[in-house]
Amino acid sequence: MGNRGMEDLIPLINKLQDAFSCIGQSCNLDLPQIAVVGGQSAGKSSVLENFVGRDFLPRGSGIVTRRPLVLQLVNNQAEYAEFLHCKGRKFVDFDEVRLEIEAETDRITGSNKGISAVPINLRVYSPNVLNLTLIDLPGMTKVAVGDQPIDIEHQIRDMLMQFITKESCLILAVTPANQDLANSDALKISKEVDPQGLRTIGVITKLDLMDEGTDARDILENKLLPLRRGYIGVVNRSQKDIDGRKDIKAALGAERKFFLSHPGYRHIADRMGTPHLQKTLNQQLTNHIRDTLPGLRSKLQSQLLSLEKEVEEYKNFKPDDPTRKTKALLQMVQQFGVDFEKRIEGSGDQVDTVELSGGARINRIFHERFPFELVKMEFDEKELRREISYAIKNIHGVRTGLFTPDLAFEAIVKKQIIKLKEPCLKCMDLVIQELINTVRQCTNKVPRCMEPVMPCHASPVHMGTSHQGAWSLGAMWSCLLVFSGCCAVRCVRDCLCFSSRVSGFP
């Protein structure tokens, strides 16, 4: 692939991202991307604004980024911005870009600092940027503010996990230098999904705010908590600079001067700073796309063939075709059987942490309730010895035997097994009830949007009657319940028959 082809990789992925955002789904394709993670006030927004050279991101206290922002940077002579949800409108004033981000965020999440995983797609054209795509994620927090739900920390963590757990996602972990690196929220969560540090790029901010006499040299030289892709240090504008509307170009000049003049960073100044970070991310993302493209292409072709086959089936689609409705019913029954088996075998995709369910409850019946019923049975050892003695003597008659006869053993054992019949039946009744409850839970997962499943001519007519009736989904639930009950009863009957054959009872 030539240089021109390499340059087109990022715009190609941008087009795919826009297409998936428009249709509201990703077609199960994990596109190569860079996700920006970090704690609140770690300097994520300042880093992105330094890339663009403009102030365009919302600022304030608490959680400011409340929806993922897919930021697509495109090198272009003219400078303007476009939103995917505002097609055809070009934003030349970047203050309007900030207001639009705030308005679009409030449209989905409301004004109560809530969060949403629905992304905002923003494309910025500028001569100051390299082709690059980043996903700015909400900053991690510990405490709920205002009307936020009390589990806001877990909500944000779950949202971050949706992105960074994918192998196709590079992680830009932003950490302030005036914080202990061992306590970094960004590196901690990155370590969970990328323990070898193969996908993580470290960014150290606020190097100018470290205590006098200290520096982050060991971190930036990748000696402390090493990452495969290393660390890059940047110096952002202070809050005073932002409030004073300090020009970003001037801030980048001050950043360059800081690294060249600092004795701890002078020897690595050419590998520090915002311009080097942007160039590195452009190269890393391009190489990452190139490496993942063959697998992405193969998966896309496979899904294309599958979709074409499905479209071909719909060309001759007839809503009243009984074969399609029968197929839908069979698929529902098949899914029901799979769910039922998972609940009994304990291999379901969702684990209940509140109470026992399915096979676990049946297991408890056999291992706790049944032994308890056996312990409650009255047992008179003296009476048993007397019965054994009489049985042996009666079988021997006038003779005197040296060995215990088999008939005496069978007679005593049969009598004792009869006493086990009542607790066994009680145990079976409890198992049947648990099976029926499990069936009810499984039927709740079957989509009810398919009702009615079968047409009028697909039920009693096929059974040899002339009555025209329609099967509703409720009828199917009843059939499934009756079917499971019959299976359970038959299971109990078979068990009793087997025990009867073993014990010799009718």
From TrEMBL:
It comes from Salmo trutta. GO terms for cellular component: cytoplasm; microtubule; plasma membrane; presynapse. SMART domains: DYNc (SM00053). Belongs to the TRAFAC class dynamin-like GTPase superfamily. Dynamin/Fzo/YdjA family. Its main location: cytoplasm. One of its GO terms (biological process) is synaptic vesicle budding from presynaptic endocytic zone membrane. Keywords: Cytoplasm, Endocytosis, GTP-binding, Hydrolase, Microtubule, Motor protein, Nucleotide-binding. Signal peptide: none annotated. CDD domains: DLP_1. GO terms for molecular function: GTP binding; GTPase activity; microtubule binding. InterPro entries: Dynamin, Dynamin_GTPase, Dynamin_GTPase_CS, Dynamin_N, Dynamin_stalk, G_DYNAMIN_dom, P-loop_NTPase. Pfam families: Dynamin_M (PF01031), Dynamin_N (PF00350). Residues 28-294 form the Dynamin-type G domain. The keyword Signal does not apply. The lineage of its organism: Eukaryota, Metazoa, Chordata, Craniata, Vertebrata. It is found in: Cytoplasm. Its EC number is 3.6.5.5. The keyword Transport does not apply. This is dynamin GTPase.
